[in-house]
Every structure is written in C-alpha cells, then in structure tokens.
Write the structure tokens for this entry.
Amino acid sequence: MDRRATGPALLEQLPPPLPADHIVALNQPKADLHTTRSYEWSGWTFDVPPGVFIPGWTSRMIHERLLDGRIETRGRRYGAMGVGLGVEAVAAGVRGAREIHAIDVHPQSVAVTARHYGRLVGERPDTVFRPLVSDVFDALPGQVQLDVITFNPPAVSQSVSADPDVVRNVCVGAPLLAKFFAQVAEKDLLAPGGEIHLIASNTADLRALVQHALDHGLTPRIDHLHDWQDGVLTFLFRITHDETPHTGGRR
C-alpha cells in the first residue's frame, strides 16, 4: 500500500467494509458500560463514570503519539474531538500544548475530562484548557483556528446496538465525518500548516470518509496502518490542507 498516495489513488487502494455480520460481531459492547469503572494508562488512573467508554487499542494509537510527540502539540493549538475520558487532553497538557479544546457531544464525558485534567495536569501558565460540550464543532467560538486535531470517530458502518451510548461511541457512521470535514472547511478551523489525525478501520466505509475530506479541499494520506490479523485493518490518516481541491462524487 502506497502511503504517499492521496486523491483517487488513495481511494482505489482502501479496502471496502468488512461483511456486516463480521463488523457486528467485532463491535459488541461490554456489559459494564453503565457502571462505574477505572482505567489505567501511562501511570495515570482515570475514573470512568457510567456511559463513558474506556479507550480501546485504536484510541491508544493516538494517545501514545500525543504523549511522545509523534503527533506534536507542544506550543500548538490542539482540538481533541470526541475527547471521551480525557486521556488525549491530559497527554497534550503534559506535553505543553498552547491551547487544548476538549470537545465531546456527551456532557458527562466533558465533565470527567475536566476533572481528570485538573487532577493530572492542573493549572499551567502557558496552556489554556477549554472543555466544551458540542456536536462536532457547533459550539466552538468563532475565529478559533487549530494547529492539530485528533479524532477517533464512531464510524462503524453497521448498527451494533440500540443503546444510544453505544451508538454515540461506535456506530454513527460516515455522515458524522461529512459534517466534521464540512465544518473544518466552512469555519476555516485548520491553521496554515495544521494537521488532522483521524483513525478508522475497515469496519467503517473508509472510501466514504476519505472522499468527504477530499470534497472539502483536504489532503489525506496514510500515516500508519495496523493489521490486527482478524480481518480488521486500522488506518491512521494524516490530513492537511490541499492547494488543489478534489471535486466530484464518491468513487
């Protein structure tokens, strides 16, 4: 797979979604979602209230890169979309981000993120922390620009549960990415030289997700590919501004 490819060349090499029954079987929610739990990572302990998801292996791909600087936030304006438990906000705070916009549609997730940030990072003179309840970027103040955005979206292409908390975290699907990329473009959210790091697998419609980025003048490339040896391929895309926007319908 050519990791330099973008545009139609990238679309052509992305795999289609896995069979529906395979996707559903892989994404069955744990029975303890509506209980109080705890999560440990990198020496930190996070309290997990009912309805808030514990990060999985795909989220940890982003968390590790934020903490070690492969996704650099030091001195930069950072947007953590779908912040959930708040691990990425904590990692960016420890790293020394200039601004952290911790965004989630779920009020309880934003509240617990703020608590974890206050306890594990605290007040830092060179970092502004802004927790925000928002459907994608709807509630983000005007004139905000971001140097780095991360997102592990609930892009699974099959419904795996009727529980609204599961749907919110797992299987909203490609339409959410259509809104995400449209707002990035319409609100001029990505600063010059800025980058989006978005993770998705072939349990989602990868070609639709990438096409939404292309349709809004963005350039996605494969930054990392992980084969779980069970049919699932997880892609970490690095998405930047494109000087020559792609147009046309989905391939």
Residues 7-29+38-241 form a domain with the Rossmann fold fold (CATH 3.40.50.150). Residues 244-251 have pLDDT under 50 and may be disordered.
